[in-house]
Design a protein that fits this description.
By secondary structure, this protein is of the alpha+beta class. It has one domain (3-100). 26% of the residues lie in helices and 32% in strands. The chain has three helices and five strands; from the N terminus they run αααβββββ. It has helices at residues 3-8, 19-27, 38-50, and strands at 56-63, 66-78, 83-86, 89-92, 96-100. A five-stranded antiparallel sheet has the order 4-3-2-1-5, covered by helices on one side. A hairpin with a 2-residue loop joins strand 1 (56-63) and strand 2.
């Protein structure tokens, strides 16, 4: 028996295809989107106006029924489509909950 065939017999057996993914999805905690107060919205808009490309930033945003945090370099700020690109992640302004960066005076 060649090595490739022999190795296949020791691979994990998944009797129910997709079952593991379904269980993982079921365990995910779904949270409702939090509404920002008018003051928080104004503060967020002020920070977005201060932001420049190539700044390192941490963004907390709502994505797919959960809050996600990403840290990285700002690669694009699109005022027209109201999106922010952090490395390879495109985030709509309306989904942003908080921004943290050294340039903000807090």
């Amino acid at each position: 028996m060649d090595r490739g065939t022999r190795a296949k017999q020791f691979m994990p057996f998944d009797a129910l295809k997709g079952f593991r993914e379904a269980i993982t999805e079921k365990e995910r905690i779904i949270v409702p989107k939090r509404d920002l107060s008018e003051g928080q919205k104004e503060e967020l808009e002020r920070k977005l106006r201060q932001l420049k490309k190539k700044e390192i930033i941490t963004v907390e945003y709502f994505n797919n029924s959960e809050y996600v945090q990403v840290t990285g370099v700002v690669t694009r700020i699109d005022e027209v489509s109201r999106t922010l690109d952090v490395v390879n992640t495109r985030i709509a302004f309306r989904d942003i909950f908080s921004l943290r960066c050294e340039i903000f005076q807090e």
